[in-house]
Amino acid sequence: KFPRFFSAFHGRRLPRIPLFFARFFHELSSVRNLRASLGILSLFALFTVIFLMQQQLTAWQIENLNVDPQKKYILLYKVPPWMEALEAGDECVITTNEKLLPSIEMYDAVVFSSESQINFPEKRSPDQLYVFTSRESPLYTKNNYQKDLMQYNLTMTYRRDSDVFWPSGFIADAAIDASAWEFRPPKWKHAVFEKYGANVKLTSIIADKSKFSAWLKSQCTDKSMRIDFMSILENYIEIDIYGECGRLDCPGTQDECLEMVERDYFFIFIAENSICKDFITEALFSAMRYYIVPVVYGGANYGDFLPPHSFIDANKFNRTTELADYLQRLASDPTEYGKFFWWKKFYPQVRTKRTLRGLCRAIQEFSTRPAKTGKIANIQSWWQDDSQCAQAPKIQLI
């Protein structure tokens, strides 16, 4: 028996040489007629030339890739367009182009998003990592994960128990390098309430506010009863609703819109579409960059993500009337209202840009484990666990 020939690239096999080559000599040895033997040899030569031309093309492609064996190659497989702009630092190469490498099996990791219909590639190398990602809550992911059992090696979501914690933003200490784009567990200072009367900028900002609250509503769907919550709250306080599902249009870009809210309003409502553990969208961190007090409505333990006394959690109140009364008292007291911005002196860096640097590091570390292909037994039970999300808020809607 003759050995099976193969080519290798970056530690992985290229597609096998056709079976014709592996069995050629066996077939040739069984032919006794010289003319037939010459015919087979000619055919073999033709196939050899074609194969070498293909190999030369592949080698040329590989040479022009400038592949670095020290880097990890990560394929974003049929992901939503917004993920295409994500970067991962210098240790990994990120691409949505399946043809960047000659075979999909050559990628160190393949990333799948819950926001797209997940269909796995037909081929997969034994040591290739599959990564499950989601920025949405499980209530808004439509895939049937029953078929995905024993497929994934890593998870990357907003949940803190993910292999790679992937928040929509975070607040960093002033001492942290300004170029840092990764979440670091905070050690919040106790709220330091300065005499804001001496802060001319803040005093001026508060004095210019003339409207009560705004809600920037970008989605019309609702699985958190937030529409009911806001409708009841409107009976007690003024709420201007902006966006596609609102009554008002916000001017310009998101930043221009938030600048307008900062100038005119005391409060901004950040009402999530799902009441799930750790689930916080980018809207909150975007608002935290401005001098507006956010009123949050969701399922996260917000104190784990935001400085103390920098936000108001609606679910800490027994009923909507109590929340409305508190907001009215706060808006009428500039000194107490101003204390909600004490943290900006110590935590000036509010990050709202997602990256894949944490994933890159996780893949680098995973490749050094003794068992490189450890798989998640049941992604469905992990991701769609009923204990992760609530159907109703804690605050009574009365």
UniProtKB/TrEMBL annotation:
GO MF, one annotated term: fucosyltransferase activity
Keywords: Glycoprotein, Glycosyltransferase, Golgi apparatus, Membrane, Signal-anchor, Transferase, Transmembrane, Transmembrane helix
Gene Ontology CC entries for this record: Golgi cisterna membrane
Enzyme nomenclature, EC number: 2.4.1.-
InterPro entries: Glyco_tran_10_C, Glyco_tran_10_N, Glyco_trans_10, GT10-like_C_sf
Compartments, record wording: Golgi apparatus, Golgi stack membrane
Membrane topology note: Single-pass type II membrane protein
Pathway the protein acts in: Protein modification; protein glycosylation
Main location class: Golgi
One matching Pfam family: Glyco_transf_10
Positions of the Fucosyltransferase C-terminal domain: 207-382
Homology family: Belongs to the glycosyltransferase 10 family.
Protein name, UniProt field: Fucosyltransferase
Lineage of source species: Eukaryota, Metazoa, Ecdysozoa, Arthropoda, Hexapoda
